[in-house]
Every structure is written in C-alpha cells, then in structure tokens.
Design brief:
Elements: E1 2-5, H1 10-20, E2 25-28, E3 46-49, H2 57-66, E4 70-73, H3 83-89, E5 92-94, H4 105-120, H5 136-141
Parallel strand pairs: 1-2, 1-3, 3-4, 4-5
Length: 142
C-alpha cells in the first residue's frame, strides 16, 4: 500500500520503519499536514497522522480528491479528525485502540502498520476501526 506520513517525530520514524519492514511504500514528510503540503499525498492510498495534526472537513475532502482511502492515526484519541466528514467521503479511519491510551512509540507504530496490513488485504481493522459507516465489524459489535 502506498502511504504518506506527515509530522513524524524522529523516534516515531525509527519505529515506523522497523514495524513496516518494507511491506508498504511509505513516504515520510517532516512537515505538518496543511493546505500547502496536501499535494504531497497525490497518488497515495493511505495517510498516517502523527502529533495530532488537525484534519478538518476541507482537508479530508482535499485528501479524498487526491486518492486517499484510509487515515490511520498513531494516537488513541480521534478528536483531531473530522470522523463524520471522513465517513461521508468514504474514507476509512483507524486509531491505536489501547484502553490506557499510553502506548509507547514502538507499540503505536506496530498498530499503525497492522492497520495498513489489514486494509491492504481488504479487511476491517477491528477494534482500531473509527469509521462512521456501518461496516460488518460495527454490526457485529452491536
């Protein structure tokens, strides 16, 4: 899967590279995701969000127009993402579903790669799913 990671810290980058182990084609950008850097996502399928970059409806629609189908955040929290806009755009969203919310960088990057792995083979990410759409996983949990 072709992915792009914005605003990544050095320790996150190291763990992301180790967790990925050349499975996915990930472009790593040190800059934050902004209107000015949005175009770097052209041709990518997935966006990896770090350091709580804000993703508004306008940003999500811009990402959708560039071909983004998946957004994986390396955090437990999702309040920096407009999940409703992502759902309306048909973009799948995943987080790091640890109840404690205090996973270290290694654990967070391993989960981000697991999410990409699942999406790459057409599967739902299970408990990491933050999608607002009614998928089979959401229905099964009800």
């Amino acid at each position: 899967m072709k992915a792009i990671a914005y605003n990544i810290k050095p320790d996150e980058k190291e763990w992301l590279v180790l967790a990925n182990y050349k499975k996915h084609d990930i472009t790593i950008i040190a800059n934050s995701l902004t209107i000015d850097t949005l175009s770097y996502a052209t041709g990518k399928e997935a966006l990896l969000v770090f350091n709580n970059d804000e993703l508004s409806e306008a940003m999500i629609l811009g990402l959708k127009a560039l071909g983004i189908k998946y957004i994986a955040t390396s955090s437990f929290q999702t309040d920096h993402l407009d999940l409703k806009a992502a759902g309306s755009a048909g973009i799948k969203v995943a987080n790091v579903p640890l109840a404690s919310g205090d996973a270290d960088a290694k654990q967070r990057m391993e989960q981000v790669i697991k999410n990409l792995d699942q999406w790459a083979v057409g599967k739902c990410v299970g408990s990491a799913c933050c999608c607002q759409n009614e998928c089979s996983t959401v229905k099964a949990l009800k």
